[in-house]
Design brief:
The complex is a heterodimer of chains A (1215) and B (230). Chain A is built from 36 helices and 34 strands. By secondary structure, chain A is α+β, with helices and mostly antiparallel strands. In chain A, the strands form 5 sheets. In chain A, strands 25, 26, 27, 28, 29, 30, 31, 32, 33 and 34 form a 10-stranded mixed sheet that branches. In chain A, strands 2-3-7-4-6-5 form a 6-stranded mixed β-barrel. The longest helix of chain A has 44 residues. The two termini of chain A are 32 Å apart. Chain B is α/β, with parallel strands linked by helices and 230 residues long. Chain B has a 6-stranded mixed sheet, sandwiched between helices. The chains are: A alpha+beta (1215), B alpha/beta (230).
Chain lengths: 1215, 230
């Protein structure tokens, strides 16, 4: 005989019990390993989706700025150590809207990603479909379905025409903002193909894509190649706003990486790629740096000042290659005259003492009066340049003698001016300003120079005022012949000069504070030479490029470099991003599905563990005399325990191995569930099963440890039993009254501790001592605390049960009939205290899951608009594809936006609505609908008046935000120029993993342009997925963003549908898309509710295991007491009595478990129950609990049947 | 009663049980000595403490006070592990409910105590076969307990008790579950093999027929052993 032999015999003989234990281990391994496999599968699926989404695109340059298409062809990696095929595809990416009409039904789609592409881009899409040409469009399936379009149909695509000058600046074009392309659908890309899901932002939801010919789109939005003509002497190259790169390396060669691409890009960037030009003014002897956008932005001005030697922030060096050695020499600063200028158009100048003396449409220039040749000095007729300080009431100016004559003013006189600005909502408020004349100059020399003003197509090149193509109304009837004469002779020559800082105070905007930067040589250097030198220096500074200088045979190769400028993060902003790497990084996911599914399966795992323990324990109980015998024949307790542990280990090993297989099946089922029943949690059907051996091993190890703990726990229960008792078949330690009392007291103390802990935690929470910050995995401390309170309450109630069962009163049997049977049933429950408590624990766990899940549901669709809630009192939320510049709250603004209401009813509805507009900087979708890890979500800029309204009216509910007026936090001044932002709690905690006080960098990475500080959190709001900042701060970070693209609309819920239709129809060109706030909240909550459903389903499986455990326990109880039950029947108890006895015992344990689980779950869910929109289905909950009870009682019927059919005589004899 | 040369000396053994109704004195000062080859039977009414005394001597239970000396060893003062070793090497138990492992064969059941041996002893299986041959179960060694009669099961139990050549064979109602004929044969067998193995046999029983076959007989009355005349 050997231990091995005994083990084999044991395993074989007790195969039924062992099989049950093995099945328990299989269940635990399947659940734990399955959760790990689900995590791997989601991660790998997201990675694969990232790869499929991008096709062959490795790097991309996007950002809205238009640059020369030829830039794509200037990359050269043929030299050096690179041996790779690099395809650079120029493209235009725009967001627009689309419409399709069939059978009088017009279907629209907004937010359409429109790509203007050529064959180079198409080759990266891994498709065999033909490239769309001319008037053809290739749609993806989602867009085609949205439009109801099929191949051969004609659709309209509306896209914004890029504005050379920002639309919300005075000279910006606000009339022709978009264009409509009528195109024929030539093909539809299915969801599984790259064109079907192409997009740069990481998101698993399918975009709506339209691909058209690059040439067609360029022509439509007027960025195509324009040859020079007599009227427009400057040739314009074709432009694009995106480059996509595919890199393919050969063999072991090193393909170019991101930094190589950016270095190459920097070298190729020219001024016109930055919408800049250097204008040579031969007549006056200077060159002028100007922008097509009219204003020079701050980064350009800084680089220009550095290049001109005005500031020395970034030293310029010349690198010379000499004898294979690189020698660096500092480049001396340019020795030039410098003249920064800000010009502005004054609508009218007039003499306040004589309103017949006026002049229309004159230019004023802010300059530095101390300038020398060629920018000065002016020839004064009277007076001199402004001296001393100035006030806004009388800004000192110098005027030329032409306007002095027209206005009849001289030195010491004042005159008035009117000029327009563009307001926040596209309105054109006219400002009045008084100027005091301190000098009158002759209209000659430096003062007679139309070059002060940058060229503006349609204005500076107009022959007469009548020919101006200006975006604001002109009073042409007030233009005098003198005005026409001046325009004819001097064009944009300024009539008024003021100090630059005065001009900047009046007219600077978020786009900049200079209109040109002029430089002139101090020696005889020819202007072209100076221009070339300046341009080289400027480009080195703005792009970080190594500029190649002319090769000098005597010296060698020479390069110009701005030492401190990094080509990977240049001021120009023209930089490639590694979109593939970013996509793969983002695929690590915001949501850890391994953790999520382990969490979902927590009670299932617990139930499996308890079941393993229970079954193993029952196996031991059956063999308790064997334990006694082994001990009696001399095996030490350690040897006996080891024997059973080895047996448990073998069962665990077998169960674990089978469980690995089951884990794959379980994970496959979960993946199937995520693609079907729980689609709302994922939002994509492109999930696949990905099994990593490591995860299966991990699941096996965790489950094995858990199972062995359960086995150890079961064996531990026999520790206090003497050998003699074991031999006599006693499976629980026999305790005398004192020991029982002590055990009961211990249970009582445990109940007290757990209850006390629950009370203390509750008190701490209500006293505000528990922070609202993230604890782990997106759960905040308050939620965790309440969960702990729930768990403590659960533990406390079960300890109370143990204490009560040990108390003498629990066992008092008296009375007759049913009551007597009930009391006997309770006594029976107390007989095996451990068994009863364990069973109650199983039931309580399952109940906990069901109640917690039911209590966690929300239904915002039924919520009415309430100011202090997640809907903020708003009924509709709308977004547009292209920005709306105007105020939709005024009839004038609506008219400017193109709305033309037909009936009184429409007008009434529109008049009754109230719109809160927000500016938008598009970013990643950081709502819970996106599984990818996001870094920078979409940012909304909140205008000052909207902040005020929100604040005054107490809009939205905030969570843990330390302010009585959270909206005002947006306007707070923070240290280190940090920008205060507000965000939705779900977005911050679960997607960005941030809390109050945390920082978000814009853009993400090592070179942020701004730092956002989270100051407050909305509670379950419609702002999920975005961050909010004040408009003022928004302009600082994103000066190029114009207009409004996000709107909250207050209206009666009854009229919301009709209003939504009116707005979508009237504002169709903007791609206006409105939906009910409650629907949007419901779509966010769909994810949460789906998670709850998943949790509920897996909890249900836990319940199934729990009831199996209960049935096992009851059956065992009955089998153990067969003699006792036979005796009861022998002395006259009817079968029904015996059935009652068993059912009462069962019902008592179940009811205790149900009550403990339900109350603990309600406590754990208190934060949610107290939050907005908690929608607990109490009726359904009661039904479910009743169902649990019924299932439990049904399970007990097996035991009842066994009890009733026990033969009386045989049983009594055998006993 | 004290005999310094005795192989088993039980001195002033007491045992009390604490209950809800107060303390119950089961053994109030038991003295007993035995030598190798002795066969002692203890009788007494139910609940008199016979089995308790047997299990205390076999260190499966603890006395309230008193001393036990087995061949110079004081097993009550040993650690749990040492007591287990003592039981394995020096004591053999025969139970009323034979406690055979249903999953093991007859031979395996006999060999169960050898699992606890520190070193594998050669020829142990031969000894088991010899013992089984001696009790007339030579042809049943590969049978399972479920295939044996009550008397056969008890014979297996006796072989199991003797497999490690114990100094002390403790039998607790060995014929309690058997019919008269089988009980007689088991009683004979027990006395014969104990004599053959030169081991001390201490048996507690209700059976006067069995008791009558022992040379030394005691009755446990009021917690004390009273020697009966033969």
């Amino acid at each position: 005989m050997s231990t091995y032999r005994l083990l084999v015999d044991n395993l074989r003989h007790y195969w039924r019990t062992n099989l049950a234990v093995v099945l328990g281990v299989v269940a635990a391994t399947a659940v734990i390993g399955g959760a790990l496999v689900v995590g791997d599968s989601v991660r790998d699926s997201l990675r694969q989706m990232s790869l499929d989404r991008l096709g062959d695109v490795e790097y991309a340059l996007t950002g809205g700025r238009f640059f020369r298409e030829e830039l794509a062809g200037e990359f050269d990696f043929s030299e050096g150590h690179f041996k790779a095929e690099v395809t650079v595809a120029p493209a235009i990416t725009l967001t627009g809207s689309a419409a399709h009409e069939r059978d009088d039904l017009r279907q629209r789609a907004s937010g359409v990603a429109t790509y203007g592409i050529d064959e180079r881009f198409w080759s990266m899409m891994q498709t065999t479909e033909a490239l769309p040409t001319e008037d053809k469009v290739f749609l993806n399936r989602r867009l085609a379905d949205e439009l109801g379009a099929t191949v051969g149909d004609e659709i309209s695509l509306i896209v914004e025409i890029p504005a050379a000058i920002p639309r919300d600046s005075l000279l910006g074009d606000r009339n022709e903002t978009d264009t409509e392309l009528v195109l024929t659908v030539t093909g539809i890309a299915e969801d599984a193909t790259t064109p079907g899901r192409f997009g740069l932002n990481p998101a698993q939801q399918l975009p709506m894509n339209a691909f058209i010919s690059l040439d067609t789109l360029q022509e439509a939005i007027e960025v195509d190649h324009r040859p020079a003509t007599p009227r427009n002497p400057t040739e314009k190259p074709a432009r694009v706003n995106a480059l996509f790169v595919d890199v393919f390396g050969y063999g072991n060669s090193q393909p170019p990486e991101l930094q190589d691409l950016n270095r190459e890009l920097a070298k190729d960037v020219q001024l016109e790629d930055l919408a800049l030009r250097l204008v040579t003014n031969e007549k006056h002897g200077y060159i002028s740096l100007e922008s097509e956008q009219m204003m020079l932005d701050n980064a350009v001005v800084l680089a220009a000042r550095q290049a001109a030697g005005e500031v020395h922030a970034s030293p310029l060096s010349v690198l010379t290659m000499r004898d294979k050695q690189m020698v660096k020499t500092r480049l001396p600063p340019l020795d030039v005259q410098r003249s920064p200028v800000l010009v502005y158009l004054l609508n009218e100048l007039w003499n306040p003492h004589d309103d017949k003396r006026f002049s229309m449409y004159s230019v004023a220039a802010g300059i530095d009066f101390a300038e020398e040749q060629p920018f000065g000095p002016f020839e004064y007729v009277n007076g001199g340049p402004p001296q001393g300080s100035s006030s806004d009431a009388h800004i000192p100016v110098v005027i030329n003698n032409w306007i002095a004559e027209d206005l009849g003013v001289g030195v010491g006189d004042t005159f008035n001016t009117k000029y327009q600005e563009v307001g926040d909502r596209g309105e054109l408020p006219e400002h009045q300003q008084s100027f005091k004349v301190v000098g009158v100059i002759k209209l000659n020399g430096p003062a007679a120079d139309p070059g002060f003003s940058p060229e503006v197509e349609g204005i500076t090149d107009a022959e007469t005022f009548d020919d101006w193509r200006q975006p604001f109304p002109m009073e042409l009837d007030r233009v005098t012949s003198r005005d026409e004469e001046f325009w004819d002779e001097h064009r944009t020559t300024p009539k008024v000069f003021l100090r630059l800082d005065d001009a900047q105070r009046l007219w600077q905007s978020r786009y900049g504070d200079l209109t040109s930067y002029r430089i002139a040589p101090t020696d005889v250097t020819p202007l072209p030479e100076l221009a070339a030198d300046f341009e080289r220096r400027f480009l080195a500074l703005i792009t970080g490029a190594m500029i190649r200088l002319e090769a000098d045979p005597a010296i060698g190769r020479r390069m110009l470099r701005a030492t401190e400028v990094d080509a990977q993060a240049p001021p120009s902003g023209l930089v490639f991003q590694s979109v593939r790497e970013q996509g793969l990084n983002a695929a690590s996911g915001t949501t850890d599905f391994t953790g999520l599914f382990i969490g979902f399966s927590f009670f299932l795992i617990l139930a499996a563990m308890l079941l393993i323990g229970l079954l193993f324990r029952l196996g031991i109980e059956r063999r308790v005399s064997e334990l006694g015998l082994l001990s009696a024949v001399g095996l030490s307790p350690k040897q006996v325990r080891r024997l059973f542990l080895v047996e448990g280990a073998i069962l665990t090993l077998v169960g674990g191995l089978l469980g690995c297989l089951a884990a794959v099946c379980y994970a496959a089922l979960m993946i199937y569930g995520l693609k079907t029943w729980w689609f709302g949690a994922i939002g994509t059907k492109f999930l696949f099963l990905s099994v990593h051996t490591g995860s299966l091993i991990g699941g096996f190890i965790i489950a094995a440890v858990v199972a062995m703990l359960a086995v150890w726990w079961a064996l531990r229960q026999t520790r206090g039993i003497s050998t003699r008792e074991l031999l006599a078949g006693t499976s629980e330690p026999s305790l005398d009254a004192a020991q029982k009392h002590q055990r009961g007291r211990r249970a009582g103390v445990m109940a007290g501790i757990a209850g006390g802990m629950a009370v203390c935690l509750l008190a701490a929470t209500f006293a505000g001592l528990i922070p609202q910050t993230e604890a782990f995995s997106g759960f905040n401390w308050r939620v965790v605390t309440f969960f702990l309170v729930g768990v403590a309450a659960l533990a406390g109630s079960l300890a109370s049960l143990a204490w009560w069962l040990d108390a003498d009163r629990a066992a008092a049997v008296r009375g007759q009939g049913v009551m007597g049977m009930i009391r006997l049933g309770l006594r029976n429950a107390a007989r095996h205290r451990g068994r009863s408590v364990l069973t109650a624990s199983l039931i309580a766990s399952a109940t906990f899951v069901i109640v917690a899940v039911a209590a966690g549901r929300r239904n915002p669709a039924v919520e009415q608009p309430v100011n202090a809630s997640g809907n903020g009192g708003f009924t509709l939320v709308a977004e547009t594809s292209t920005p709306i510049l105007y105020d939709l709250n005024t009839s004038q603004g609506r008219a400017q936006a193109g709305m033309d209401l037909s009936g009184e009813s429409e007008e009434q509805q529109i008049d009754a609505m109230r719109v809160m507009p927000f500016r938008v900087k598009p970013g990643e979708n950081a709502s819970c609908l996106n599984l990818y890890q996001t870094q920078l979500p979409t940012i909304l800029g909140v205008p000052e008046d909207v902040i005020q309204t929100m604040s005054d009216e107490g809009r939205f509910k905030f969570a843990d935000t330390p302010s009585d007026d959270p909206w005002e936090l947006l306007t707070a001044k923070l240290d280190d120029n940090r920008i205060p932002v507000l965000g939705d709690m779900n977005t911050l905690l679960y997607s960005l993993h941030k809390g109050i006080g945390d920082l978000v960098h814009v853009p993400p990475g090592d070179n942020p342009g701004g730092t956002l500080q989270i100051e407050g959190m909305f509670d379950g709001s419609v702002f999920q997925g975005v961050l909010l900042m004040s408009e003022a701060n928004f302009f600082k970070l994103f000066p190029d963003q114009t207009g409004f693209q996000y709107f909250l609309i207050e209206t009666s819920p009854d009229q919301s549908s009709e209003l939504s239709t009116i707005l979508e129809t009237q504002l169709a060109d903007y791609g206006f898309d409105a939906e009910r706030v409650s629907d949007r909240l419901a779509s966010f909550l769909a994810v949460q509710n789906t998670y709850l459903s998943t949790f509920q389903t897996l909890g249900g499986l836990g319940l199934l295991l729990g009831t199996l455990g209960l049935a096992t326990v009851m059956l065992r109880n009955v089998l153990e007491r067969r003699g006792e039950l036979a005796l009861l029947r022998a002395v006259g108890f009817r079968a029904a009595h015996v059935a009652w006895l068993v059912l009462c015992e069962n019902a008592f344990v179940m009811l205790w478990g149900l009550a403990a689980g339900a109350l603990a779950a309600l406590l754990a869910m208190t934060p949610h129950l107290m939050s907005t929109g908690a929608d607990v289905p109490w009726g359904g909950l009661q039904a479910m609990l009743l169902c649990v009870f019924a299932v439990g009682m049904l399970a007990a019927l097996f035991a009842v049947r066994e009890a009733v059919r026990t033969p009386i005589l045989t049983t009594l004899r055998s006993e | 009663m004290s005999d310094a040369s005795a192989d088993l000396r039980v001195t002033d053994l007491t045992k009390q049980f604490a209950g809800a109704a107060g303390t119950l004195d089961v053994l109030t000062g038991v003295d007993l000595t035995m030598r190798r080859g002795d066969a002692v039977v203890i009788t007494g009414p139910s609940g008199s403490g016979k089995s308790t005394l047997l299990y205390i001597i076999g260190v499966l239970d603890e006395p309230t006070s008193g001393e036990i000396n087995v061949d110079g060893l004081l097993p009550l003062s040993l650690s749990a592990a040492e007591q287990a070793r003592f039981r394995n090497e020096s004591v053999g138990f025969v139970f009323q409910d034979h406690h055979l492992l249903p999953q093991c064969t007859v031979l395996e059941n006999v060999l169960i105590p050898t699992l606890a041996n520190a070193k594998p002893s050669s020829g142990i299986e031969d000894r088991a076969r010899t013992l089984l041959d001696r009790v007339g179960l030579k042809d049943r060694i590969s049978h399972r307990p479920g295939q044996l009669s009550g008397g056969e099961r008890q014979r297996v139990g006796i072989c199991r008790a003797l497999i490690n050549e114990p100094l002390l064979l403790l039998a607790d109602e060995p014929t309690g579950n058997l019919d008269q004929h089988t009980a007689e044969s088991i009683g004979t067998l027990l006395l014969d093999v104990a004599s053959e193995q030169n081991t001390m046999l201490l048996c507690v029983t209700h059976s006067h027929e069995l008791a009558a076959r022992f040379s030394r007989r005691y009755e446990l009355t009021d917690g004390k052993l009273v020697e009966q005349e033969t």
